[in-house]
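Propose amino acids for all 255 sites.
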């Protein structure tokens, strides 16, 4: 079945995005990563373990809670219709995150620190909604792992981004080899890459006077980046599924 004009446009955008995901890290990427690793080496191991445990528990709580507040999978709609609704949801969450960032940024250091778990919850809830709108049920544990991979794609250094991207290719096959226990997920790398990615931008949110506008703008842009990443990640699965459908022989009724 030939692609529609909209689907052809999507495939072109997807190809460009996939090329970005597979790029080699630049010299600047290497320098920034080396600097962050040096800084992380000064942090005591007990602190790293405490942060990893806190983020793990926080995300697991959101992953469990959000699946009970997410609507039914939006299956059997055209890709164009699905993505129209997805864009509306992304816009809603961008505005929500901007408002939250402005409020916590205006509240000084204590409220600024509270922004971290609040923003994490907004991001993950948006991913749940996007998954459902593309027709994927988040009741499936493996779909929630896919959400964490999307999160890593959006908020990791280029080297880690490439590695995660390769794990997401041919997901229908990859997911069959996932561990059954979410505890086996690499939480240490997850939290460290995320912190390294957003630390500089979010630290400015703690500065008096400029904290509110910085918090609003940074949160808005972080949600935009996550939304774009999620759309392309699910487009990749749409393309793979379309290919599988073409290769699969049609079912014939028994004679």
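Proposal:
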């Amino acid at each position: 079945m030939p692609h529609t004009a909209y689907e052809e446009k999507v495939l072109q955008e997807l190809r460009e995005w996939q090329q970005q995901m597979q790029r080699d890290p630049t010299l600047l990427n290497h320098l920034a990563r080396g600097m962050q690793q040096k800084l992380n080496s000064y942090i005591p191991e007990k602190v790293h373990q405490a942060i990893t445990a806190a983020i793990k528990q926080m995300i697991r709580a959101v992953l469990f809670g959000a699946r009970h507040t997410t609507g039914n999978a939006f299956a059997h709609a055209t890709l164009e219709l699905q993505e129209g609704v997805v864009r509306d949801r992304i816009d809603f969450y961008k505005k929500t995150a901007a408002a939250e960032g402005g409020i916590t940024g205006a509240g000084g250091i204590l409220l600024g620190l509270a922004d971290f778990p609040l923003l994490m919850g907004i991001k993950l809830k948006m991913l749940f909604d996007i998954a459902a709108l593309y027709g994927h049920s988040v009741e499936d544990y493996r779909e929630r792992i896919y959400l964490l991979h999307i999160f890593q794609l959006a908020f990791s250094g280029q080297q880690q981004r490439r590695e995660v991207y390769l794990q997401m290719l041919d997901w229908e096959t990859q997911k069959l080899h996932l561990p059954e226990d979410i505890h086996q997920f690499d939480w240490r790398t997850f939290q460290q890459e995320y912190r390294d990615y957003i630390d500089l931008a979010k630290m400015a949110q703690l500065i008096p006077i400029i904290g509110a506008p910085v918090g609003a703008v940074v949160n808005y842009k972080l949600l935009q980046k996550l939304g774009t990443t999620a759309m392309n990640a699910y487009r990749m699965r749409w393309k793979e599924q379309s290919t599988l459908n073409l290769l699969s022989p049609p079912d014939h009724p028994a004679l």
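Confidence is low (pLDDT under 50) at residues 105-113. The two ends are 26 Å apart (CA to CA).
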